[in-house]
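hiii, so i know i said id send this last week but things got crazy w the move. better late than never?? heres the sequnce for the chain we talked about at the cafe, plus the structure i predicted for it. fair warning i was half asleep when i ran it
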Amino acid sequence: MNMRATVWSLGFSLLMIALMSMGGLDYAQSGSQSKGSAGKTSMGTETVKIEGELHALPEMGSATKGHPTYAIKVIRATSTGGRELRGLQGAMLRLRDSEQSEKLVRRVRPGEKIIVKGHLRQGDKTLEVISFKKAKQPESRGSGTRVRGSGTK
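okay and structure toks below
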C-alpha cells in the first residue's frame, strides 16, 4: 500500500470515529432529560423561581449601543419542585428579550429586589421571564435623629 492510500484510510477512520462520538454525546444529552425531569421545558432549560436584584450592565460593543443589558443578581433560586439551587447563588443571570422582560425593566428600577418565575438556560446563564413581582422592601423608619426645633410646644 502506498503512502497516499494509508493517509486517506487513517484520515477517513479518524473522521468516522469523531462523527460517531459526537452522535453518542447528543444521544446522552437528550436521554438525560427525557423521563422524570419535571420542570425541564427543553434541552438545558429549567423552570425556576429567582429572588434577586435587578442590575443594568454596561454596554457591550456596538450591538447593544443605546440598549443596556439587564441582569438579575441571584439571592435565592429554587426549582419548580422546591429544590434550592445553591449553585446559582450570587450569579448574574442575563434577561432574554421578551415582552415580560421589557415590562420588568420598565416597572422595576435597578437595585430593587424582585421575585421572578422563568425559564433558566444553565449553559449561557440567561433567564426568560414568565412572571415577576417586586419583593417586599424593608420599610424605612427614619434616621432616628431628632431635628432641633421640630417639636411642638
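btw Residues 13 and 19 are 10 Å apart (CA to CA). thought thatd interest u
miss u guys!!
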